[in-house]
Amino acid sequence: MIVIYTLVFPGALFALTVGMLGWWLERKVSALVQHRVGPPWYQNFADVFKLMGKESIVPEKSTVFLYIASPVAAVTAAISLAVLVGMPVFLNTNFAGDIILIIYTMALGSAAIFLGAAASSNVYAGIGAGRELKMLLADELVFVMVLLVPIIRSGFGLNLKEIIIATPALFSVSGVIAYVVGLLAIQAKLAIQPFDIAEAETELAGGVEIEYSGVLLGLWKMTKAVHFFVFPMLLTVLFFGVPSSLSLVRYLWFLLFYVVTLAILIVIKNVNPRATIQGVLGFFWKRLSLLAFAAVVLAILGV
Amino acid sequence: MPTDYNLPVGPFHPLLEEAEFFKIKLDGEVVADIEMETGWMHRGIEKISEESTFDQSIFAVERICGICSASHPFACVNAFEDIDDIDIPLRARYIRSLVGELERIHSHLLWLGLAGHFIGYDTLWMWAWKYREPILEIIEKTTGNRNHYAMFRIGGVRRDFAPSLSDELNEKLDTVARKLTMVTKAAMDDPVLKSRLSGVGVLTKEAAIDYCAVGPTARASGVAIDVRKDEPYAAYDLVDFEVVVQEGGDVFAKTVVRILEVFESIKIIRQCIKALSKTGGAIFNDAKSISAGEGIGRHEAPRGEVFHYIRSDGSNRPVRHKIRAPSYVNIPTYKASCVGENLADVLITLAAVDPCYCCTERSVKMQDENGKELTESLLKRSQDKTEELIRELGEYEAWRYL
After folding, report:
1. A21-48 per-position pLDDT tens digit
2. Domains and CATH numbers, chain B
3. What is the pTM of this model?
4. Which of A129, B97, B131, B391 could cross-link A118 (Cys pair, CB 3.0–4.6 Å)?
């Protein structure tokens, strides 16, 4: 059974499909905002499919093992994350582990990006790797505090299945604050504007991914696609909750608020220029962490 | 990983529309030093012009740059007319100014879009370029082409402005002005953009004067120079417009200067269209020949003053044609504005002078005080190579290959 969970639903196949459609939605809506036509719905599938048939060039001076292992680790971590979050949401089943495990698995993805970039021994990737690490330091603390709010609201349970069927955290002041802060943290985790500073096309020419090609680049794309599914989903179910019984209503409920969350992310993306790394560190540590902390305090006070 | 290393930006990089090489020495994320290497876009335009007849060289210099393809011929005909003091009919003067200003609008909008793209603000990029499109349509209606207008000839212009276009042009300008006000609001009043660009890459007034910066780069640093006002040519002394000056010197000030200049240009174009409906007469004085002598021509291109020097010996070709594009003096200001800044800020600062590398690249010979050559002359290398080919293959065969 676990094989089906991991490979089909809600794991690899499902997460990739929904993630790529979510990613396509982001690209398409951005294009419409910018008076462009935008890609067809299957563009991301076609991209990854094509990359799978291409040669992966490994740079001569790179650390070969890390260079190859990093994208594999990243996509594995992303799919595990999809399973860990997806099982309680879609199947109402529990897994051996709680929200702490989810936090660890999330950090693993960023660590893999950092290692892969550092292993490729390219100066652009090197700068990108440094930025990725700083980004992780910036958004991780905030995101953990954001996760604490629904945990506190649902009575200090760390079990995701119980958190999501409790009263939605958004019905409180602390929940609203945490959701807004969480949106920005998700934006940073997905590395879309204004937080695409580790890739920064016009500065670092792709940054962390610059040396990757073929199958390995396809793995990075798949990681990104799964992230497009998992991160907004996690935020959605934690703050909007889901109906307690497993039915079609539950799936539609989830779909509705997943799209809402994604739409807000897309709007933020399209009205902001790329931030600088100092700006991001300052923004997350000085402003958002205070806000998130205030939300945690408010949640403890029961507001 | 060492803490200081060189980041090569170029010769091919998403930041640069053209091939150019910046060697950025980084200390962490802070830029310690920048070196620039030129020579990637050299095409020997001056030599081509010197081998062409006067009429041909106007077309040759038009090909220097696709964006400012009215600026170089404008300055070039100014230089030719300076040799013989040729008079230009009033109607032609208005048409010249009209084309010059249309080009300024489309060039500034192009820059605004690119700047948006460079700082990762793709919405601004696409919007600015969308509203550049009606301007290009106006240019096509007026001159017959979207780029490379071929409007200029010695003594006037090649193509008359049809009076029937006036209404349509005014209408399109209205639309563009309205849309631009919206883009301006999105760009200038946006707190995020303001905080991203304010105080970035400051070029002080002293540094701008020291580096002889021209155009919007200088005007954003509080130096009010504009050839159109300082030494009017064409119809610029007959129309009413302001020279936009900002004191900030940072990238935001440069953006503001360019956006406000677009509105000034729209003002000039409206006045030109109005004047053209009242002014009749010929559009050129036929100049049969150019006598021996020297002439200089200047024009306020979108990026600043472009300068052409022409020496004629009474034949039908220029003996010497020297071109100095505005980017030639604007690009080196990176020495004053970039060192010590963060990488992300430096890259937008490099782009903020609106550099045009193919305009800039002239073959130069650098000598020290004793007359010893410091750099290899590109022209000499090219001539040596040609001679070597001729020696190896024989003249007939070599010319077949060239």
Report:
1. 999 999 999 999 888 898 999 999 999 9
2. 45-340+347-360 (1.10.645.10)
3. 0.85
4. A129
